[in-house]
Amino acid sequence: MNYLLPAAALSLLTAGVAAPALAQSAPDWSGPYIGIYGGAVDNKENDGETLVFDRNLDGTFGETVTTSGGADAFAPGFCGGRAQSNEAVTGCLGDDTGVEGSIRGGYDWQFGSIVAGVVAEWSGVNLSDTATGFSSTPANYVFNREVNDMAAIRARVGYAMGPALVYATGGAAYAGVKNSFSTTNTANSFTTMTDEDDADGWQAGAGLEWRLARNLSVTGEYLYTSLNTGDYVVRAGNNGTTPATNPFILAPNTAGTDIARSSDEMELHAFRIGMNVRF
């Protein structure tokens, strides 16, 4: 009997040590969590993007602005990015890679090795998307849109392997956008006619979450976002001294010409690292 008591105690101690070790190697991912994230976000330049024109102000874009001699006033061309000068031959500077920081909250359910959940997120973003046109005057016409913030709600499905969770995610996204226009043309007036400051779309991505402790994990993630921005239209008109031969107010449509970007799509690629606290 004297030997049975120590043996039983040893058995209980061994079980007590093994249980936490097992829990650490195969954590439970179920429950709520909050997290913070940060990283770099890049806008995929649309090399084929141009400016489009509504010459007769009927709401339909795609017409050609011509000189009084019938030549294409924008024959020098277009480029993605910001103009370096009035001349198309000098090209454009591409948009810089942006940054973002986000907070998120989510909830996961675990079914064996499968983990499924939902996550809601808000991000502060600093990212520009610019397109430029060049007229034969010469002059440049620069349209810029900046993504300032973005909200998303996504589903998440993953596979748990010990302390690791490999997952895919996808859902809806909404962004706040700031539009702006600049030009070196001083012969015309330029008036903003439409300025919609939002964008909506979808997101998809994948990541790896690694459990550091019972309630703490780190994550590396890639996220693709496709956004459709609202309309932004600028009208080139008569500034009071504009000659009647000016291409934007050339007869018979003397009220002016509306200008917009040819594409309302933005494609964003984000690489993030973050940390989650689980409850």
Task: Write up what this structure looks like.
This protein is mainly beta and 279 residues long. It is built from one helix and 15 strands. The protein has one helix spanning 4-25, and strands spanning 31-43, 51-54, 77-80, 82-83, 92-93, 98-111, 114-135, 139-161, 164-183, 188-195, 198-213, 216-229, 232-238, 257-261, 265-278. It has an eight-stranded antiparallel barrel. It has a four-stranded antiparallel sheet with strand order 2-14-13-10, with no helix packed on it. Strands 4-5 form a two-stranded antiparallel sheet. Strand 7 and strand 8 form a beta hairpin. It is elongated.
Task: Please supply descriptive tags for the structure shown above.
single chain, 279 residues, mainly beta, eight-stranded antiparallel β-barrel, four-stranded antiparallel beta sheet, 1 helix, 15 strands, elongated, disordered N terminus
Topology:
Blueprint: H1 4-25, E1 31-43, E2 51-54, E3 77-80, E4 82-83, E5 92-93, E6 98-111, E7 114-135, E8 139-161, E9 164-183, E10 188-195, E11 198-213, E12 216-229, E13 232-238, E14 257-261, E15 265-278
Antiparallel strand pairs: 1-6, 1-15, 2-14, 3-7, 4-5, 6-7, 7-8, 8-9, 9-11, 10-13, 11-12, 12-15, 13-14
What's this, in brief?
By secondary structure, this protein is mostly beta strands. It contains 1 helix and 15 strands.
Oligomer: single chain
The SSE string, one letter per element, is: HEEEEEEEEEEEEEEE
Q: What overall form do the CA principal axes indicate?
A: elongated
Would you count the extended β strands for me? 15
Indicate the mean pLDDT: 91
The proportion of residues in beta strands is over 45%
Q: Which strand order does the major sheet show?
A: 1-6-7-8-9-11-12-15
The rounded Rg comes to 28 Å
Helix content: under 10%
